[in-house]
Amino acid sequence: MPDDEVILEVEDLRTQFKLKHSTLKAVDGLSFSLRAGRTLCIVGESGSGKTVTSLSLMRLIDPPGKIVGGRLIYRGRDLMQLSEREMEEIRGDRIAMVFQDPMSSLNPSFRVGEQIAEGLIAHKGLGQEAARRETIALMGRVGIPEPEARYRDYPHQFSGGMRQRVLIAGAIACEPDLLIADEPTTALDVTIQAQILRLLREIQTSTGSSLILVTHDLGVVAAMADEVMVMYAGKMVEYGTVETIFAAPAHPYTKGLLSSLVRLDDTRESDLQPITGLPPDLAKLPGGCSFWPRCPLAETACRETEPSLRAGGAGHLVACHLAEPVAQDAPA
Amino acid sequence: MSEPLLTVRDLSKHFPVARRKLLGGGDKLKAVDGIDFELAQGKTLGLVGESGCGKSTTARLVLRLIEPSSGEVTLDGQDVIGASESKLRALRREMQLVFQDPLTSLNPRMSVGTNIAEPLRFHGLGSRAERQEMARELLDVVGLKPRDFDRFPHEFSGGQCQRVGIARALVLKPKLVVFDEPVSALDVSIQAQILTLLLSLQRDLGLSYIFISHDLSVIKRIADRTAVMYLGRIVETGPSEALYRRPLHPYTQALLNAIPLPDPKAKRVDDLGVLKGDVPSPISPPSGCRFHTRCPHRMPICSEKNPELKEAESGHQVACFLHA
Q1: Is A316:A230 a contact under the CB 8 Å cutoff?
Q2: What phi, psi does A279 have (nearest 5°)?
Q3: What is the count of residue pairs from A and B with beta carbons less than 8 Å apart?
Q4: Nearest CB to B262; choose among A261, A268, A271
Q5: Of A114, B173, B262, B286, which one has the greatest count of Cβ atoms within 10 A?
Q6: Chain A within 8 Å of B253 (Cβ-Cβ)?
Q7: Which DSSP category does A287 fall into?
Q8: Strand ranges of the sheet holding B316-318, from the earlier edge strand across to the other edge
Q9: Residue of chain A minimizing CA distance to B218
Q10: How large is the ipTM?
Q11: Is A247 exposed, middle or buried (0-12, 13-18, 19+ CB in 10 A)?
């Protein structure tokens, strides 16, 4: 597949949750595209809409949530137009997902190997024995020692890191074009996180698949991303290459996140500069820009009008009345 | 040098493990296995390590919320482990614990103000009006509003609940506060707010902290001294500045190398150091140095003998045969 092929194009995605007295706009008009082999990191705090975005891409939103608008164009086909049955053929086969908590996404009463083999049988039409052999090969490939013996183990017999490898093995079984990983290392110890991040990158290099990585950890973003999308209150507030986002962040929220970060590479003398206030409550969003109550720059315009995304050079996007997107990308 | 506020000597906690075999003694899970440390007045000791290293058990042992298998804990010259029930109750006013999950550690049926005043009532201190007055003062100290007094924990966000938990810990004017992963469940912007608060409280009130975290960046920021734990033992300890600048134990080095930095120019995924394998089970830990199964510098002696914690540089100790 050509390097610059766009494999996913999201247009004006809107996902809402209908509650008794209100409607939460968890994802509110999100548009972006992803090219083959690239890694997009979606970063934000609790309630920013990053997880709902990743579930929406898989059309895995359950009531009271609903995708109320937008197009999800995967290699020329709008996934929103597919029947649930057609979507099932794509899910786990062409687009696969890895969740944060591997224990709750594995069935505790089935053998681990069988859970991986299931996908191969369903999507690739393999027989039992062929699927078993293929599964053992996959388990070896994601670094599970003695895969033949461990095929018959149950999820509780695996450590957290090993369970995450099982999920990854299941997700890559059908060689998807797109892997969506939602906080895949958040529950793991740091040495295990490093192993899993390296594994995700190895898989990507060898299969050419694209990766959407949802995380709150800016260290993980810096290690993995080609492009970065910063979300706040259901909207994209900034988008750019990883170099631009870290070297020349434009949105006050992105800047605030970076300056409130406790860093291993800083000096003790520099003071933390936390963003004041609390992450947004989607049920009580302020008018205008959702970030203005926490923004050090906020002016009258920010309270009155919602800023739209403006583009600079080389794809840098910023939604802020007072910040300019960079004209040129920061050098890599 | 003046007497340290807290001294911990050869502290151990071995949990019995249920097993199916009919004969033979029960297995022991050595959650904490002979650790020593000291904490000076007004300073912070950071305890860092991965899941199962024994850092939370250590916190509970120091406060004697669980009974140690052996060892000594001395707070301000007083024996914590040998103290009688009534003596312990008095000692507990001097040392308080703040938990990771602030919401579940507060009483959901009590207002925030009553939650904060509760330890005073428990210890029979002050009149009702005085207790409420102190709770109001503490709301202000931790950056909450006076009107928050009558609200309930469920109306608060995680960061605000953690402020309430801190206020409740401080209401008895303790000398020592133990924090067990106090910012791990919080968003980045809120983590920074809470850490800033803890640093200023320490400066203003002269508090001593034990700060437990799996996050080395947080420990580096807040701790004067750091102790790195692995499978129930301290493998390296020293002034944070020296330990982070020149980590000596291969495990400390591996931890630091594995952390991604928020700087794409400094470190990309291929630069992350990878330690092979998982942490072994604490029920049957490796012989000798417990890290030898994952250590890139393993020598024959490492699986035979347990390296003692030895001073490598001033105040900086490491348990490793490379530095013996």
Answers
A1: no
A2: -55, 155
A3: 145
A4: A261
A5: B262
A6: no
A7: S
A8: B95-98, B176-180, B208-213, B44-48, B225-230, B233-239, B316-318, B310-313
A9: A262
A10: 0.88
A11: middle
Q: What are phi and psi of A142, to 5 degrees?
A: -85, 10
Cβ proximity of A174 and A124 under 8 Å = yes
A223–chain B Cβ distance below 8 A for any pair = yes
Q: How many angstroms separate the first and last alpha carbons of chain A?
A: 25
Predicted pLDDT of residue B185: 83
Chain B contacts of A242, Cβ < 8 Å?
A: 264
Is A242 in the B-facing interface, judged by CB distances under 8 Å? yes
| % of residues, chain A, pLDDT over 90 | 70
Q: How far apart are the C-alpha atoms of B11 and A192, rounded to whole Å? A: 28
Lookup: tokens for A162: 């090993």
Q: Are strands B78-79 and B95-98 parallel, antiparallel or unpaired?
A: unpaired
* Pair of tokens at residue A171: 């997700």
Contact yes or no for B272 and A217 at CB 8 A: no
What is the reported pLDDT for A1?
Answer: 47
Residue A18 pairs with which residues in a beta bridge? Answer: A23
A8 vs A267: CA distance, rounded Å: 41
Preferred mutation among A159, A164, A189 to probe B, highest tally of B CBs within 10 A: A189
Instruction: Name the residue among B218, B220, B261 with its Cβ closest to that of A219.
Output: B261
**Phi, psi dihedrals of residue B227, rounded to the nearest 5°:** -120, 125
| DSSP character string of B215-255 | -HHHHHHH-SEEEEEETTEEEEEEEHHHHHHS--SHHHHHH
Q: Is A295's pLDDT higher than 90?
A: yes
Q: Distance from B90 to chain A by nearest Cα, in Å?
A: 36
Q: Where are the beta strands (DSSP E) in B43-126?
A: 44-48, 70-75, 78-79, 95-98
Strand ranges (E), A194-315: 210-215, 227-232, 235-241, 310-311
Average pLDDT estimate for A140-146: 88
**Whole-angstrom distance, CA of residue A90 vs CA of residue A72:** 13
Q: Which of B170, B171, B168, B166 is nearest to B182 (CA)?
A: B166
